[in-house]
Amino acid sequence: MSENVVGFTRNSNLHGSHILDIFFRDRMRSAALQASALNHEFYTPLAIIKSIAEKILKGPDQNLQNQLQEIINETSRLLITLERLSLFSTLEDSKSHRVSLLQVVQQEISYFENIFLKNGISVQLDIDEKLLVETEPFRFRCILGVLLQNAIESFKSLNSEIGKRLTVHTQNNENFVVLIVSDNGKGSSDEMQKKIRSKIFADIENFEMDIGIGLAMAYHLAKTLRIEFDFVSEVDLGTSFTLTFKK
Predict the structure, then answer these.
(1) Model's pTM, two decimal places?
(2) Residue 222 lies in a domain
């Protein structure tokens, strides 16, 4: 590593080693967070699949079709998570450039198309096809993927007769482009929102794994892209996430 990169002379061994220590420690923290996230994301669907399979093996059940559908749904979640991993493998090599916001959003939504259809979730897009933003497409798609998965989860406890709607639209002015991802799912109470915020906005070294792991990773990815990440929610009305890009 050259002198002008780190800003120290060749005799600054103490400072240089300190910077390397910080660099590797942060990389290890990030790796630990990702490993814990993967364990968290894989454990739940695998446990559900195991439980349903055990029930089916115990004997005939009138709800066999529903149980098999649950297995399909949870398997689909695992496949999507694996697709997320393929995107994460490209993160270090990705570069920021101007991209079509509509095109990137459509690409990510296509990964969830079958799950949306099977769960009766209608998706509405309202994004100008000419709208461009400066971002790294792979990182941004990982963020968007977390928000779409969050919306899917929010619909699970809803009455099937209630129309499940996911809306992705933008607000555009001279200084900012705001992407808004909204659902009419179960929403969160004020108390739960405070708890979620305290977790997802925490520093990586202080993060706890009991809640909001996907949102936490989305938030920290957004920070690396200089995207402002926020959300509002209301019980029985749904949740809206905002991603704000500076022009």
Answers:
(1) 0.67
(2) yes
Q: How far apart are CA 229 and CA 218, in angstroms?
A: 8
CA dihedral 124, 126, 130, 136 (to 10 degrees): -70
Lookup: tokens for 236:
């029985």
| Strands of 42-137, DSSP E | 97-100, 121-126, 132-135
The whole domain housing 154 covers 96-246
Least confident of 35-39, 57-61, 95-99: 35-39
pLDDT classification of 9: cutoffs 50, 70, 90:
very low
- 207 or 113: which carries more pLDDT confidence? 113
Q: Is 171 exposed, middle or buried (0-12, 13-18, 19+ CB in 10 A)?
A: exposed
Q: What is the pLDDT of residue 216?
A: 78
Three-state SS at 237: coil
Whether residue 13 is predicted with pLDDT greater than 60 in this model: the reply is no
- The set of residues, in sequence order, having a beta carbon less than 8 Å from that of 156 and lying 6+ positions away, is none
The count of domains in the chain is: 1
Sorted by sequence, the CB contacts under 8 Å of residue 151 that are 6+ apart come out as: 121, 166, 181, 183, 185, 239
Asked if residue 107 belongs to a domain, the reply is: yes
Report if residue 19 sits inside a domain: no
Helix 213-224 to helix 190-200 angle (10° resolution) is: 50
CA distances from 145 to 20, 67, 153 (A): 33, 26, 12
**Cα 23 from Cα 31, distance rounded (Å):** 12
